[in-house]
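Many introductory courses stop at the sequence. We go one step further.
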Amino acid sequence: MTTDLEQRFGFLIADVGRLCGKRYDDLAKASVDLTRAQARIIAYLAHYGDMNQVSLAQRLEVAPISAGRLLERLEEKGWVARAANPNDRRELQVSLTPKAEAVLTAARRVGDEVQAEALAGFTPEEAEQFSQMLQRVRANLGPLVER
């Protein structure tokens, strides 16, 4: 077992995530009126469909009140809508509006740029293999964490 942080899996993954996130923020400031957290909300809703505010907060790993503040800003911009769940009025369902499609496209372009910068020097085959390896790591850890 190595003690060198440069070789420790968890630290390396965390650092890469932090650097990608920071770079995304820097690029998004210049081109999209959207924070990384807001972009994640829009991306999750586009991928998973409508969900309640609590589930969204769990995916973001933030408190429901923090997710609520983010959603308020997205509602003000017309990108999401919140409505009471007809089966449980205490629960708010969050959905994307048609207006969100344009900002999602712009957010994806920023993500693509970060990916291109991060994988500079990789062959297409190496980039694909790296993606597949990360997917395997996620598949290994997901069931252990998301019980």
